[in-house]
Amino acid sequence: MKKMWMIPSLMLSGIAPAFAQSSVTLYGIVDTGVEYVSHANAAGDSVVRMPSITGSFPSRWGIRGAEDLGGGLKAVFVLENGFNTRGGDIGQGGRLFGRQAWVGLQSTYGTLSFGRQYTMTYLALLENDVIGPAIYSLGSLDAYVPSARSDNTVSYKGTFSGLTIGATYSFGRDSAGTGNSPGQGTCVGAVPGDFQQCHQWSAMLKYDVNHFGAVLSYDQQRGGTNAAANFFDGFPARPITSSGDKDTRIQANAYFSYAGAKVSAGWLGRLVESSNEAVASVRSDIYYLGAQYFFTPSFIVDGEVYRALNAQHDTRATLGTIRATYLLSRSTAIYAQSGYLANSARARYSVSAGGGGTTPASGSNQTGLLLGMRHLF
Known about the structure:
By secondary structure, the chain is mainly beta. The chain is built from 3 helices and 20 strands. The chain has a single domain, classed as Porin (Beta Barrel). It is globular. Mean pLDDT is 93; it is low at 1-20.
């Protein structure tokens, strides 16, 4: 009996040196505010609310860890939960770790990871868009972009002398069947006899040097049972239920920064194609230009203008937004953001990416205003 008790003790003593080389970090963002949106329904009524999804950033908490395996190799993982500060409920369709859940290996040659992860569409915007995933932003015109992630994904990303190369491949982008992004429906995938159903792949090429960066990304989703493609312009979502159907986004953008100022510009092109030749393709383009300036180390003003065009739907929209942020500390900030969206006669884009429920009447313009607070930990 004494010898049997010694066995687990010896095992633990052997594992202890490996644990000594490990690190685990708890982190998060708590961000919310009070929002006003005009013409928030077909009757033209306004609304005052706390948005459920985002303020300056979507709220989240997560755990990241790394273990040094020796020889420059590390085991790494991230578990990240998204939640709505307004009610404390879980985002991403109720998934516990709906933002990220992956494990991988990291070395000087890059990181290879497996699980639920961001696609390159999301990663391509991290340093190249001054407004980011805020409530009045690119996400108002295409809600997929700030939610670009997929299940069952193998990912690689490596940086070499300022050049970053990345790619993902998903064997079924929505294995939980709760919807991966607004307007996409559900697409579980991994269907016997139909290998391409609900598969997705993305790629990115990014270059950064002092004061300048540029990026090009590609993202293609295959159709499947219950999948859809929504252009968020008021037209009904288009079913893409065949694995031969494709929803493709190409993105190119660049930024320049100097002496506390930053300017960014970009283009997001989208093409939805059907495997049925009798069904016409639908294409949209979004162009944007933004600027940011640090008036003091604690006071930042940024703004951006976006233009969305969809010839097949005959819809167009122009969104302008400006934001002022005051840093109370390194972790806490207060901010005010306003946005104005002008719709063409047939368009019903919404100025707010704050959780739906603010779609205007066709051709109606909207004003949005948010006063918010953000804390990082």
